[in-house]
Amino acid sequence: MLQTEREQTSNAMAEYYALQRRLQQLGAGLVAIVFVSTYLFYSFNTALSYLLGAGTGMLYFHLLGKTVAGMGKQPYRFANLRFPLVVLAFIISIKLEMLEVVPTFLGFMTFKVAILVDVFRDMYQDTVR
């Protein structure tokens, strides 16, 4: 039976939201693991710097997801805050002497690692089948 265009769009959006939720959960898990590891092997200030970057990255990813989900509809009103949010996080990291820039940057990149992990997981599942 052929699906209507509305049903196809609904299914595609459900898949998109499931992917977004999976990536957010994976990212949060990675942040927790790396934060604890950084705290244990480095210093609290380094771990705090990482957490600032990771939190910013996760928020950036969330805002990006809202923008993508709203394509073709009314624009998401906080969509333009993504870049200033990142700049603000790095300004805070630079200005506060207790924070470090490199861990902040690496923390920001954590959501990209979550995406790569998910891609490799999908590739592995496709080769196993």
Q: What are its keywords?
A:
129 residues, 5 helices, 81% helix, flat, mainly alpha
Low-confidence stretches: none
Percent strand equals under 5%
Proportion of helical residues:
over 70%
Total number of beta strands: 0
The number of distinct structural domains comes to: 1
N-end to C-end Cα span: 26 Å
Which shape, going by the Cα principal axes?
flat
Structural class computed from helices and strand pairing: mainly alpha
Let me know the largest β-sheet.
Answer: none
What can you tell me about this protein's structure?
By secondary structure, the chain is mainly α. The chain has one domain (5-128). Helices cover 81% and strands 0% of the residues. The chain has helices spanning 5-41, 44-69, 82-95, 101-108, 110-128. Helix 1 packs antiparallel against helix 2 (44-69) and helix 2 runs parallel beside helix 4. The longest helix has 37 residues, at 5-41. The two termini are 26 Å apart. The model has no long low-confidence stretch (mean pLDDT 87).
